Amino acid sequence: MLIRKPDDLRYSEVTPRALFLDRRAFLASLPAALLAREAFAAKLPDVHPSPLSTTEKPNTFAEASSYNNYYEFGTRKDQPAKLATGFKTNPWTLSVEGMVKKSLKLGHDDLLKVAPLEERIYRHRCVEGWSMIIPWIGYSLSALLNKLEPTEKAKFVAFESYYDLKQMPEAPSAHIPLPYVEGLRLDEAMHPLTMLTVGMYGENLPPQNGAPIRLTVPWKYGFKGAKSIVKIKLTDKQPPNTWNIINPPEYGFYSNVNPNVDHPRWSQATERRLGEFTRRPTLMFNGYTQVASLYNGMDLKKFY
Ligand code: MTE
Questions:
Q1: Is the CB of 150 within 6 Å of ligand 1?
Q2: Cα 162 to the chain's mean position, in Å?
Q3: pLDDT in tens, 221-278
Q4: Which of 81, 214, 280, 301 is the most buried (most CB within 10 A)?
Q5: Whose CA is nearest to atom 3 of ligand 1?
Q6: Closest ligand 1 atom to Cα of 70
Q7: For the whole model, what pTM was predicted?
Q8: Which atom belonging to ligand 1 lies closest to the Cα atom of 174?
Q9: Domains in the chain and their CATH numbers?
Q10: Is residue 68 lining ligand 1, measured as CB closer than 6 Å?
Q11: Does the Cβ of 222 fall within 6 Å of ligand 1?
């Protein structure tokens, strides 16, 4: 077995030779996220840096791939990295349909070919109050939607995640309606920052981060970023979104990062960046103020 040394693995964490020779003990000693990376990772070719990136220092791969929300694979942060390791993402079909002139079905390899791949280092702010900096790889959702030619009637975009009890036996214990669904207004979906993400840290996405394709909307709370998407549908009505279905007073449709609108049970004024001790102030629109004009004239306390 070829064992690579990921860049973010410290020398103090490198396994002693005797332990390495005992394969079972070695595997049991490895953090789940790194194991999954060995089994799954492939470097993505021809990735170009994006001017949309923040210059802040990214979190480590280990942080981004072992502290996850993916309820289909368990509700604890450490569970998806362990329980999604065998998730089968090839073959895959992403169906893009609805109020469009041309609908499309994309297979696993097509997902990488929609547009040139860019690395975009984005802020990632969860509604629970933690944040990370993640170098995602993908392209603007608009590159895909423009190929389909949305009709005049299309006003929203609905997203649906994969759901299969056989592959996700832990899912019912999450007690949330599945499949996971999300939605954006069409102008939000067409904003260049809105990204279809196929990789991170130079490689394809690990299963726990939403392989093979997920949504990334950096000015919104993380839950808008539906993982492992199988359907994108253009509609004329505001689509349902999972957390809003579960608890409407706590989770809205817009869910723009907003330090001035508290969650009913906690303040959103500050956040804890993973790996840091002191909380830092949360920025309006997570710092992506270029999207402010999308919400001109809207009361963002009402449309939370
Ligand atoms: N997508 C699906 N299908 N299932 C989920 O449970 N959790 C959401 C979102 N997408 C979730 C999902 C939540 S609550 C967050 S904060 C982000 O994924 C977390 O993304 P990350 O694990 O890559 O940080």
A1: no
A2: 14
A3: 999 999 999 999 999 999 999 999 999 999 999 999 999 999 999 999 999 999 999 9
A4: 81
A5: 227
A6: 6
A7: 0.90
A8: 6
A9: 12-295 (3.90.420.10)
A10: yes
A11: yes
